[in-house]
Specification:
The chain has about 190 residues and is of the alpha+beta class. Helix content is about 50%, strand content about 15%. Helix 2 runs antiparallel to helix 3 and helix 3 runs antiparallel to helix 4.
């Protein structure tokens, strides 16, 4: 298995990658949400590929799986828009200004920020997030999600090895040892 480089990204590259990923993710997310409003709003869910994939328009007034949806609108605004905005700004500053951030951590956090921006735009514009995808088999289904949620999930999935094994396990630049085919011992 290939190791991930521990080298940090140059300041110029960090800004370029951060902006490129964020712009592409936000544009794709907002375009799909606009398409969903125009073509799927008010329609029943539409199954595809034996109902493994489902297009299901929904307006999520809360966070992940409608968390906080029952709170008053003003409280939701402060938690889901203002507080999330501060967190996204802090994470953005961390990955853009900290020259010791590894490439792996940089890309994981950048995907989280890009997705967070897409959903925050919805909350600021509408007071809710537009969702439209659903996956599953039979009664076992995901929540309804969007492209921004996929970016956030990708970033968090990238962080699982960090949480389990630490960054050092992902940062080895050393080549794997060659094994002697007869004895199985390491050779130099």
């Amino acid at each position: 298995m290939a190791a991930i480089s521990s080298q940090s990204i140059s300041k110029k590259s960090r800004w370029a990658w951060f902006c490129a990923i964020s712009v592409v993710m936000v544009l794709a997310d907002q375009w799909m949400k606009n398409y969903a409003v125009q073509h799927w709003k008010g329609l029943p869910p539409r199954p595809f590929l034996f109902d493994i994939f489902r297009v299901h328009y929904a307006e999520n007034h809360g966070a992940f799986l409608s968390l906080f949806a029952d709170l008053p609108k003003d409280v939701r605004f402060w938690i889901l828009t203002v507080f999330n905005g501060i967190i996204l700004l802090g994470v953005s500053g961390y990955v853009l200004l900290n020259k010791n951030v590894s490439r792996y951590v940089f890309f994981a956090f950048t995907f989280v920020v890009a997705g967070g921006l897409g959903n925050m735009i919805d909350r600021a514009r509408f007071g809710f997030v537009i969702d439209f995808f659903n996956m599953g088999l039979g009664g076992l289904r995901t929540g309804i999600f969007n492209i921004a949620d996929m970016a956030i999930s990708a970033g968090f999935i990238m962080m699982i090895p960090l949480a389990l094994y630490g960054e050092a396990s992902l940062e080895s630049d050393a080549a794997p040892e060659k094994l002697d085919g007869v004895t199985g011992s390491a050779t130099s």
